[in-house]
């Protein structure tokens, strides 16, 4: 018996026997697994699989196979593979095989081309047996550049929401961009000044960056955000102090005015596209965040990013400047600051929760297990905490502790976490009841794909839950994580059990900068949105 795909690829097929025919029950099992793993209505399939083909010699009749499959009679044999390289059917389902007597079983959502196999060098596995020749060429999911429409669109469907960064352009529009400098090769810049705020929206879009309006105009993103209760975590970015609109290193009033303008401009777009207030939160590394919120016209939730990191310097120098604040502000102090200021949630660095760095701040230590976890629960009191960056090895413990994670890992092939748990990527918008949660917790590496398939088929999305189901879920969460009443100052009804949005305190998994942070420069050349 042979294994076709390794554990990381999530599918194994051991029905290829070099000494005997393939058992029909094994073949049925393979079809069931592939149908689950690569559903025909899943837009992400193209990113997960490039070629999947089954070549069956004299294996008929082909009956009762699902719509995921297509049976194709082999073409006349040829020995000139090069003649097919530029054929237009390479952009759709197409098959070339050796020998017209063979039949081919293809996954409908994949592109199949046997001659192309000769030019592939990675992830190619081939097994021959009596009655069956199975060739699989698999490309792993390819992550789109951070903060691009492609990256954000994938993540908002895959997770409970998305986090992204907004900046003002030279012509007063809003662009999605993290760094102070335009993140393209310097040779592409049209100005001697590298800062984002010196470029117009059209110029930035010509590089391939996504405007906030373009994000909201995307039907998939808008439907998920507005109608499916997904969360948008919007980080507002201050310009570099040396830029024309940066206000200098000590221009507090200019900083406040800039962030206020950015809030109002972003809010106008969110209102235009009818994004619910409770599905959005603004935050920033901005000492005057509360003042900017009060000066703006927004009614949306907000928070302040602490410890404060200035918008200039290298990554290392920024962290060094933030260190004194981190050392003197325990997690309990962080919670108290946000509660009393009227903030709606707490964005927190992962360093507060994992050793050894979580031992450094003064005051009680918090963590994800043991006494530290009890300290965390007592200090948090159910107040929403969003933690970045959440790596796969701590994702399960973080969620179990009642914390929302901002993750850089949106790979649909990551279904089994390094901690030894099946991964559930939408804990708030596709919530598990107690029985379903126990089923997931008891999953093994060997059976977790079957369990995930069953749960995905049976779990009711929050937006479709009736009042009784919502009340039951909220009671379970409240008991597990010791929820307390939300402060009235955040402007949201406690629990928020109405509409399509999960309760404000619900534990979520959010895609950081869409499908995750990527290398610099973010766009190596023009990127099509």
Compute the separation of the termini in Å. 45 Å
Order of helices and strands: HHEEEEEHEEHHHEHEHEHHEHEHEHHHE
Shape category? globular
Major β-sheet annotation = 9 strands, mixed
The tally of domains stands at: 2
At the first level of CATH, what is the class of the largest domain? Answer: Alpha Beta
Rounded Rg? 26 Å
The CATH architecture of the largest domain can be given as Alpha-Beta Barrel
Outline the low-pLDDT stretches: 1-24, 38-139
Number of strand elements = 14
Helix content: 25-40%
Per the CATH scheme, the topology name of the largest domain is: TIM Barrel
Mean pLDDT comes to: 78
> Beta-sheet strand percentage?
5-15%
Number of helical stretches of at least 4 residues: 15
Describe the overall structure:
There is one protein chain. The protein has 529 residues and is α/β, with parallel strands linked by helices. It folds into two domains: 7-137, no CATH class; 149-407, Alpha-Beta Barrel (TIM Barrel), CATH 3.20.20.190. The protein has 15 helices and 14 strands. The protein has helices at 24-37, 45-48, 149-158, 201-207, 212-217, 219-227, 252-272, 289-295, 315-328, 331-341, 370-380, 392-400, 434-441, 448-458, 467-481; strands spanning 51-57, 69-73, 102-107, 124-129, 132-137, 161-168, 174-176, 231-236, 280-284, 302-304, 346-349, 385-388, 404-407, 509-512. The strands form two sheets. Strands 6, 7, 8, 9, 10, 11, 12, 13 and 14 form a nine-stranded mixed beta sheet that branches. It has a five-stranded antiparallel beta sheet with strand order 2-3-1-5-4, with no helix packed on it. β6 (161-168) and β7 (174-176) form a beta hairpin. The longest helix is centred in the middle third of the chain and has 21 residues, at 252-272. The two termini are 45 Å apart. The relative contact order is 0.11. Residues 1-24 and 38-139 have low confidence and may be disordered.
